[in-house]
Design goal:
Elements (H helix, E strand, L loop, with lengths): L2 E11 L2 E10 L2 E7 H15 L17 H19 L2 H4 L2 H14 L6 E7 L5 E7 L4 H11 L10 E8 L5 E6 L6 H8 L5 E7 L14 H16 L7 H13 L2 H8 L8 E2 L3 E3 L6 E8 L2 E6 L8 E5 L3 E9 L11 E2 L5 E2 L2 E11 L2 E8 L3 H19 L23 E2 L8 E3 L3 E2 L1 H4 L8
Parallel strand pairs: 4-8
Antiparallel strand pairs: 1-2, 1-19, 2-3, 4-5, 6-7, 6-8, 9-11, 10-11, 10-18, 11-12, 12-13, 14-17, 14-20, 14-21, 15-16, 17-18
Helix pairs in contact: 7-9, 8-9
């Protein structure tokens, strides 16, 4: 995950004005958090992991902070959150996850109430799921799985994704839903800007995991509707003969045979991103990126005679990072940027990865794309899956967690004025354990 605190603002409640720090996760405002709430988090982490495991926490001041001191505190809090999130045991643990969940709920004024969420399958079928407004992602995923009678053993093979409906009617994947968020709240936030939906898709990249699902009717159907959807959208590159045979199997309702044949086609199980730009082989090169099965494929728009398709293997990426830049325009009460017309504006996102182009030669390659967060999450999930397979393991569910933070610890503030800022927040560098383990570099 990519954490940043690009700015802070003043809010108020019955006790008067106070400062909150806008915590962004993956480039999107997650919650506006008071210094005291960050301090409570630090105290709980100290009790659980000990002080030596944690970075230094910004000290408390007796007097009110001036603008320079607030800026220093903002930077220190940002560095603190980025550092603890890099520790897998802390970042995925109960205390930190519950802190993030509560921050989202308080900021957006959501109380636990019964509600119904629609989860869509890839064929457009909608499943109505009864949950609480504050339920986390895994709870909603399990509820959706039970509605369609998917066996518990197969739930880890699927995940919920946030999908946006574009102006041309097409759908684009925004990101995979995470355990630190409530799907109800996240959906409520993004739908203020554009129509979105929750979609159930495979959680893995390696086609060999399909074998575990083909004998189960419900799991097979989920694989089938996703493969048909990807074929219809042109995401699976089937040539004339294979495409004809796939359509024949589809008309016959031969789902298992359809999947087995589709797996032989190029880009089966890959995700296609929208066109963007990169600095390879030169600045501002138009590119369409396709991600899947341990690699990124760059389809470059270059002059005739130059290579048009380049493959970057995940196991040769030493690390990557997300850079989030913000303009000088003002933010609204929820922390979103807005232009003069009051329309929210998204941050400018850039993903850069350090690539082993030759033995002992590393090169940074950058991609400027609104889907940089999705691309980063794709890379991380590929690395996780490589290590999973190396250890002979199968996809597994997020560990069940109990609440350690209470919504009563924070108050829902009323919005006050917010100073315009011009910040550029660079998130932490994400290391690649598969690279460190030298997996897949035998040809160098």
């Amino acid at each position: 995950m990519h954490f940043s605190i690009p700015d802070n603002c003043e809010q108020s409640d019955n006790d008067g004005p106070f400062t909150v720090f806008n915590l962004h996760i993956n480039g999107i405002l997650h919650g506006s958090v008071r210094y005291s709430q960050f301090r409570d988090l630090h105290v709980q982490l100290q009790k659980a992991f000990g002080s030596n495991r944690l970075p230094a926490f910004p000290p408390k001041k007796l007097l009110s902070l001036n603008s320079k001191e607030l800026e220093e505190r903002r930077l220190l809090l940002e560095r603190y959150v980025q550092t603890i999130s890099q520790d897998a045991e802390i970042g995925n643990g109960t205390i930190f996850v519950e802190f993030l969940l509560v921050a989202q709920q308080i900021t957006h004024g959501v109380q636990p109430e019964p509600t119904t969420i629609e989860v869509c399958l890839m064929n457009g079928h909608r499943v109505e799921v009864k949950v609480l407004t504050t339920d986390r992602t895994d709870t909603v995923l399990c509820a959706a799985a039970h509605e369609i009678n998917l066996l518990n053993d197969f739930i880890p093979y699927f995940a919920l994704y946030l999908v946006k409906r574009e102006s041309d009617g097409d759908m684009s994947i925004v990101r995979r839903m995470q355990e630190f968020e409530s799907p109800y709240v996240s959906l409520k936030i993004v739908e203020k800007v554009a129509p979105h939906r929750l979609v159930l898709r495979k959680s893995y990249w390696d086609p060999s995991f399909d074998e575990d699902l083909l004998s189960d009717r419900i799991a097979l159907n989920l694989l089938y509707v996703q493969a048909v959807s990807d074929l219809d959208r042109g995401w699976i590159a089937a040539d004339g003969d294979v495409a004809q045979r796939l359509r024949s199997l589809q008309s016959q309702g031969s789902k298992r045979e359809f999947i087995e044949l589709a797996r032989t086609a190029k880009f089966y199980g890959f995700v296609h991103l929208k066109k963007c730009t990169c600095d390879y082989p030169r600045e501002a090169t138009p590119v369409a990126i396709i991600a899947g099965n341990r690699e990124l494929i760059f389809r470059l728009e270059l002059p005739a005679g130059e290579p048009r398709e380049v493959t970057f293997r995940v196991t040769r990426m030493r690390c990557w990072r997300i850079t989030t830049s913000y303009g000088a325009n003002k933010r609204d009460a929820t922390g979103n940027h807005e232009n003069g017309a009051g329309t929210p504006r998204e941050p400018v996102l850039e993903l850069s990865f350090e690539y082993l182009v030759a033995k002992d030669t590393l090169k940074w390659i950058s991609v400027l794309s609104p889907q940089a967060i999705l691309l980063s999450m794709c890379l991380q999930s590929m690395v996780d899956e490589i290590l999973l397979k190396k250890n002979g393991e199968k996809p597994k569910r997020a560990a069940a967690k109990t609440s350690s933070f209470s919504a009563a610890k924070g108050k829902r503030p009323s919005a006050a004025s917010n100073e315009a800022k011009n910040k550029s927040a660079s998130d932490e560098v994400q290391g690649n354990e598969a690279f460190d383990a030298a997996i897949g570099d035998e040809d160098l």
